[in-house]
């Protein structure tokens, strides 16, 4: 009767200081009550479910498109290319170090040769470690038909890599303007003409190794992918300007695959994309010494417009924006004109100069392709498979807590059903209260010395080994020790008049009452 709640069950056993099978069973049964309650609270949680689908996206082919050729109409292209080139140079440090350019196009980093690679050749990196010098160009590659959703895809692109010497104060080198000059001769464009009325930049670029212009006029490297005789010595790109400053750069064409991941943006219609892994392209390509500018007609045209991209200068006392960028990439420094002085490369390291000149060279060619594609020049595109991933909130059922919850329900329900079964199979009336209180005034427990002065717990502790039952008393003499008690037993306990006696007594003198019998 003292185990109607979980707390009462525990305190009762602690008070009795006796542990038996019944106590263990009661504790285990009641243990499922709080356990089931906690299971109900932890049964359902909110999780996420990922659904993926694939779709095609396309982008400008940076490998096969040749913009600077005699047939591409470079003059009209300059209306879009020049502003794009200048805007990229004058971007904020945040944009230059960002994974995307001013127009929301993903930028391709330089592939690090010494980066750790996995089994498939991928080099993984974090965007947190990328700076503005980490990217091969200041502009990115636009992805056509890319939805504003979480997605991932692979881009195969190319760029030119430069390994330059530190700019040195040495005499300027004579540059040949004849594209038919033999290899080993620095050939460059003529950026001046008799009709010029403004002050144009005086910096120059030249290259000393080319493929045969007669065979590959207006060509591009992929034309030589299957030509075994295509390998030419590595070319040297020359940069020089007044100062004088001269730098020689070894040049290679790099083909990379970039693993791009995009996150949907609620504030814009363009997803935020970034390159998270790169590897050398596993496809067959032309030798790396054959670059985009290894074709004389292409190089001369591209270099001519590149040098004149910033148009005329305010006066002869300034350098061009390109020259100032090579000294310091800050937009405020570029616009201030180095304190109204020419660009000075005294404090520029070889690594910094290589990265900056390479960025501007790649920016010029990539921006030309992006601009031409925007102007519907009919360029070649590549397709890539974009994997879109949508994450939905779902309810998740914990199987562990579900099992505990079900077991708790079964145990507690079984205990309730068992109490109902006991109610229908018990012949004696239900008695409320503590069992020890029923023995206090009973004449059959005279051996519990102390009588009515004992409290309930103390009396229960004394009688803890006595099995007590409520039933028909059949052997009263063993527990009656007074003549008055025996008289009462003769008066009420005799069965001669058909009236039995129900009482709480030790089990050895009590039997189960019979249905239909009369009891006092």
Plain-language structure description:
The two termini are 24 Å apart. The model is unreliable at 478-496 (pLDDT under 50). The chain has 520 residues and is an alpha+beta fold. The chain has helices spanning 6-16, 21-42, 74-89, 93-96, 296-307, 321-327, 331-340, 350-374, 399-424, 435-440, 456-462, 483-493, and strands at 44-60, 123-124, 143-144, 151-164, 204-207, 236-241, 245-263, 272-280, 381-397, 468-473, 499-500, 502-506, 510-511, 518-519. Helix content is 30%, strand content 21%. The strands form 3 sheets. Strands 1, 2, 3, 4, 5, 6, 7, 8 and 9 form a 9-stranded antiparallel beta sheet that branches. A 3-stranded antiparallel beta sheet has the order 12-10-13. Strands 11-14 form a two-stranded parallel sheet. It has 12 helices and 14 strands. It has 3 domains: 1-43 and 398-425, no CATH class; 51-392, no CATH class; 429-520, no CATH class.
Record field, number of beta strands: 14
The span between the termini is 24 Å
Kindly provide the radius of gyration, computed on alpha-carbon positions and rounded to a whole number of angstroms.
47 Å
Report the major sheet.
9 strands, antiparallel
The helix fraction, in percent, is 25-40%
As a percent range, the share of strand residues is 15-25%
Structural class: alpha+beta
Helical segment count: 12
| Mean pLDDT metric | 84
Secondary-structure element pattern, one letter each: HHEHHEEEEEEEHHHHEHHHEHEEEE
Number of separate structural domains: 3
Residue stretches low in confidence (pLDDT < 50, at least 5 long) are: 478-496
Overall, the morphology is rod-shaped
């Amino acid at each position: 009767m003292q185990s109607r709640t979980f707390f009462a069950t525990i305190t009762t056993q602690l008070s009795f200081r006796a542990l038996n099978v019944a106590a263990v069973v009661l504790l285990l049964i009641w243990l499922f009550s709080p356990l089931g309650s906690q299971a109900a609270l932890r049964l359902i949680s909110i999780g996420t479910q990922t659904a993926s689908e694939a779709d095609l996206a396309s982008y400008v082919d940076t490998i096969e498109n040749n913009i600077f050729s005699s047939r591409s109409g470079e003059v009209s292209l300059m209306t879009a290319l020049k502003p794009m080139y200048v805007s990229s140079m004058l971007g904020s440090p945040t944009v230059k170090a960002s994974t995307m350019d001013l127009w929301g196009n993903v930028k391709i980093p330089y592939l690090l040769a010494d980066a750790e690679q996995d089994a498939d050749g991928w080099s993984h990196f974090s965007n947190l470690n990328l700076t503005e010098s980490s990217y091969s160009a200041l502009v990115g590659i636009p992805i056509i038909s890319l939805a504003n959703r979480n997605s991932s895809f692979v881009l195969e692109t190319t760029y030119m890599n430069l390994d330059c010497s530190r700019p040195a104060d040495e005499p300027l080198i004579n540059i040949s303007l004849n594209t038919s000059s033999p290899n080993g001769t620095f050939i460059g464009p003529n950026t001046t003409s008799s009709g010029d009325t403004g002050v144009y930049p005086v910096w120059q670029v030249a290259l000393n190794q080319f493929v045969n212009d007669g065979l590959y006029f207006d060509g591009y490297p992929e034309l030589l992918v299957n030509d075994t005789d295509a390998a030419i010595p590595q070319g040297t790109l020359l940069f020089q300007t007044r100062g004088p400053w001269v730098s020689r750069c070894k040049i290679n064409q790099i083909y990379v695959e970039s693993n791009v991941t995009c996150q949907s943006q609620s504030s814009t219609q363009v997803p935020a994309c970034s390159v998270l892994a790169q590897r050398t392209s596993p496809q067959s390509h032309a030798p790396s010494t054959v670059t985009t500018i290894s074709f004389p007609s292409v190089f001369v045209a591209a270099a001519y417009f590149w040098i004149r991209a910033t148009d005329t200068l305010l006066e002869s006392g300034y350098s061009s924006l390109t020259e100032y960028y090579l000294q310091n990439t800050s937009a405020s420094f570029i616009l201030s004109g180095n304190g109204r002085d020419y660009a000075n490369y005294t404090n520029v390291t070889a690594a910094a100069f290589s990265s900056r000149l390479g960025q501007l060279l790649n920016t010029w060619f990539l921006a030309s392709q992006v601009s031409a594609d925007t102007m519907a020049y009919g360029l070649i595109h590549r397709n890539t498979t974009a994997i879109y991933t949508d994450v939905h909130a779902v309810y998740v059922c914990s199987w562990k807590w579900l099992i505990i919850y079900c077991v708790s329900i079964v145990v507690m329900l079984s205990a309730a059903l068992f109490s109902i079964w006991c109610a229908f199979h018990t012949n004696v009336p239900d008695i409320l209260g503590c069992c020890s209180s029923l023995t206090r005034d009973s004449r059959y427990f005279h051996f519990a010395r102390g009588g009515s002065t004992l409290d309930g717990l103390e009396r229960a502790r004394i009688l803890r080994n006595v099995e007590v039952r409520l039933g028909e008393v059949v052997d009263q003499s063993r527990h009656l020790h007074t003549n008055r008690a025996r008289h009462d037993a003769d008066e009420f306990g005799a069965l001669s008049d058909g009236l039995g006696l129900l009482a709480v007594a030790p089990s050895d003198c009590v039997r189960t009452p019979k249905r239909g019998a009369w009891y006092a």
